């Protein structure tokens, strides 16, 4: 009696007859032998059909199979050192589910627009599957890190009445008779949760209505946003570098074959271990001016600036103490130098830009009210946020990690659009 299994588990069935539901990834023939490249979502294996060892019906079916045809394949699993997986399947029977005709994505080269129009099918490719497996491992490692370090998962709302960082980049909608927006960050709500639970994190979708077409930007993306009560800026930086180290090392441990599929330089990831280097905004400005960039103190960094700084290091680098004028209203000023704030952006190596932004938050009620006036924020709309400073205020810090940029960096991808199953970009809402 054949055992139903999946390709990932064939190592447990060497010498046994199994049944695997699969698709034909590719096929080639050599006279009286058909070589079927099978995939089932968990992995890949070659099925070998020998004409003299199967029925005429099975042989003819094997000959007729086309790319992405779906079949149940019965056969014996054996070890095969020449195979990438280390195993091969000697096919004894085939049951056709569907014979595919004119599958749109062939082994030839296709343009990006064509592939994005067929994203629902492009996901089946070897490379895209590897990216999705690594994305899933990153998510698992993220949750493992926080769940084992005393954090509680809290889900902030997606529909909000106000903005976290200004209303210019928000998607507006109607909430019955009221105005509402798709969230651009769960941070403010996570601050409230931290006052109840100590250390918390959220993981969910966020939306930015930026008309940006760079390789680093998506309209809809996923954020991990921890907040920590009784935690200062320095403590937060240590959490961030240990967090990133854990995620990268988890991917190296559990997704080695997927990284090899992507032809990722694994040595560059093996070096990602805490602690990470740090550079102040002041030092970064000085460095950039020496490198030929004309950027005055007080301006924010763009992609070329971040890339230049990152190239000086082989690990992620923190840029700390930005001017208060270019950062969010809630960031705590440095007590020794109030024109800069206790914040940091973590810049990934190899030109992938900012993957984490974080800060110590203002905990002084009077200073927060001053910031509200400076930024012309409505006290009525944000009264609940002001209450957090009014009733039991404490030092607290937090940060946000963009999942897709992190996936792009770890996978070594040229564009962030491949890091999410169905990307939403400036000109793409299909499929």
Automatic annotation (TrEMBL):
GO terms assigned for molecular function: asparagine-tRNA ligase activity; ATP binding; catalytic activity, acting on a protein; nucleic acid binding; transferase activity
Subcellular location: Cytoplasm
This protein's name: Asparagine--tRNA ligase
Gene responsible for this protein: asnS
InterPro entries found in the cross-reference section: Aa-tRNA-synt_II, aa-tRNA-synth_II, aa-tRNA-synth_II/BPL/LPL, Asn-tRNA-ligase, Asp/Asn-tRNA-synth_IIb, NA-bd_OB-fold, NA-bd_OB_tRNA
Keyword S-adenosyl-L-methionine recorded: no
PANTHER family tied to this protein: ASPARAGINE--TRNA LIGASE, MITOCHONDRIAL-RELATED, ASPARTYL/LYSYL-TRNA SYNTHETASE
GO cellular component: cytoplasm
Pfam families associated with the record: tRNA-synt_2, tRNA_anti-codon
Principal location class: cytoplasm
Signal sequence, start to end: none
SUPFAM superfamilies attached to this UniProt entry: Class II aaRS and biotin synthetases, Nucleic acid-binding proteins
Annotated Gene3D superfamilies: Bira Bifunctional Protein, Domain 2, Nucleic acid-binding proteins
BP terms from Gene Ontology: asparaginyl-tRNA aminoacylation
Biological source species: Paenibacillus yonginensis
Protein keywords: Aminoacyl-tRNA synthetase, ATP-binding, Cytoplasm, Ligase, Nucleotide-binding, Protein biosynthesis
UniProt keyword Ligase, yes or no: yes
Domain Aminoacyl-transfer RNA synthetases class-II family profile, residue spans: 134-431
EC number: 6.1.1.22
Record field: catalytic activity: tRNA(Asn) + L-asparagine + ATP = L-asparaginyl-tRNA(Asn) + AMP + diphosphate + H(+)
């Amino acid at each position: 009696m054949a055992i139903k299994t999946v390709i990932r588990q064939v190592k447990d069935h060497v010498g046994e007859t199994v049944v695997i539901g699969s698709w034909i990834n590719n096929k080639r023939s050599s006279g009286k032998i058909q070589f079927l490249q099978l995939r089932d979502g968990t992995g890949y294996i070659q099925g070998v059909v020998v004409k003299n060892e199967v029925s005429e019906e099975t042989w003819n079916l094997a000959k007729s199979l086309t790319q992405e045809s779906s079949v149940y394949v019965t056969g014996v699993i054996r070890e095969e050192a020449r195979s990438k997986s280390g195993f091969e399947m000697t096919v004894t029977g085939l049951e056709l589910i569907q014979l595919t005709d004119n599958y749109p994505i062939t082994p030839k080269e296709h343009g990006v627009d064509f592939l994005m129009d067929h994203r629902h099918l492009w996901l089946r490719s070897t490379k895209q599957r590897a990216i999705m497996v690594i994305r899933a491992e990153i998510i698992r490692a993220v949750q493992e890190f926080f769940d084992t370090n005393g954090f509680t998962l809290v889900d902030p709302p997606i529909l909000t009445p106000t903005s976290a960082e200004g209303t210019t980049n928000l998607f507006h909608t109607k909430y019955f008779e009221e105005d509402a927006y798709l969230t651009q960050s769960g941070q403010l709500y996570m601050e409230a949760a931290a006052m109840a639970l100590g250390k918390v994190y959220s993981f969910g979708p966020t939306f930015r209505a930026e008309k940006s077409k760079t390789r680093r930007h998506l309209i809809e993306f996923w954020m991990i946003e921890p907040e920590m009560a009784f935690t200062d800026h320095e403590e937060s930086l240590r959490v961030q570098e240990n967090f990133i180290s854990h995620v990268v090392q988890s991917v190296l441990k559990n997704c080695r074959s997927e990284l090899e599929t992507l032809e990722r330089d694994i040595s560059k990831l093996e070096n990602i271990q805490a602690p990470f280097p740090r550079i102040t905004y002041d030092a970064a400005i000085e460095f950039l001016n020496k490198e030929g960039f004309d950027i005055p103190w007080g301006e924010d960094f763009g992609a070329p600036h971040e890339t230049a700084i990152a190239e000086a290091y082989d690990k992620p680098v923190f840029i700390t103490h930005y001017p208060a004028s270019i950062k969010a209203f809630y960031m705590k000023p440095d007590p020794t130098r109030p024109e800069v704030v206790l914040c940091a952006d973590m810049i990934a190596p190899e030109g992938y830009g900012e993957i984490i932004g974080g800060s110590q938050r203002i905990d002084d009620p009077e200073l927060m009210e001053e910031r509200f006036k400076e930024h012309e924020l409505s006290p009525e709309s944000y009264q609940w946020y002001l209450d957090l400073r009014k009733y039991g205020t404490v030092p607290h810090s937090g940060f946000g990690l963009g999942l897709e940029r992190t996936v792009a960096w770890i996978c070594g991808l040229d564009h962030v659009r491949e890091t999410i199953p169905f990307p939403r970009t400036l000109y793409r809402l299909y499929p």
